[in-house]
Task: structure prediction
Amino acid sequence: MVRTVLGEIPANQMCNTSVHEHLITAEYFHTFLDKLEPHEFSQKECDFAIAELKLAKDAGMDTLIEVSAMADPRQLKYIAERSPVNIIASTGFYKNFSKEQQNFTAEQFRDHIVYENEKGLRGSGIMPGVIKIATFMPKLHPWEVRALFGAGMAQKITGLPMCVHSATGTRYQQYIIEAAGANMEKVYFSHMESPTDREGRTVDMQVDYIIDTMERGSYVSFNGFVAPEYLSPEAIGELVIKVVERGYSHMLMLSLDHGLGWKRELAQTIADAQNLNMNRRTFAKLMTDVVPWLGNIGIADKDIKNMISLNAQKLFG
Ligand SMILES: [Zn+2]
Result:
């Protein structure tokens, strides 16, 4: 069974799934998108998210994994109760650790996740279905090492799947999580298509690096689609084709990593961290644009089905 915001569902009801999105304009967005303005709980923002989710459902999306970690659970519940798309919420930590968290021991990181796994997000009874953990630099800060180790220990205790923000330093992250005792088959590394994850590697070396991550048991998710200022269609297409040709479509998953953009008191658009011009984007594009495009560049239907549906069911089920 899989834990959604509204309760458990069988894994095979997840159907088409985006494994890495943001429904909440969490405070962390404001720290690196200084065009955005902080705000409190907003029904307008929720209603905007719900409208976007209805568009995504109409396009064929069934489940969305919300990996903001520390998002307001009241807001998630309000959205989930009105959304035709299943929402899976995250516990854990995003990449800008507070001063207090920078002094956490690995056990304190672990205990926060274990607490939310038992009592719900912020003790609300709204249960997380995934652990999110993020680090930012190739050379990990000491607290990032402790956060990864703590999250790995929490995975072992809770059995929850884990989403790792991996735009750089993936190998170190994986070693630390593995050393903490996590079940690596429950872990996925996001953003490995990112130019920053290349760390000087050629395309073929990056494909080897991605497949090595998969051979250590873990899944990988790409999100750099329909975002040409971040990555050209040719560049991400080449990575997808090569990973699939090597026989690893059963370990690759899809998403857009979009989030709500908040501009002048109104949620106007869908943005991701690279979308500094706040061009409008929607969650629906994964189904309306990306899936058909994968077919157009020669990816077989069975491989696309692995990536958009079956792999997430295995990982979360
Ligand atoms: Zn993200």
Remarks:
- The domain at 2-316 is CATH 3.20.20.140 (TIM Barrel).
- The mean pLDDT is 89.
- The longest strand covers residues 266-271.
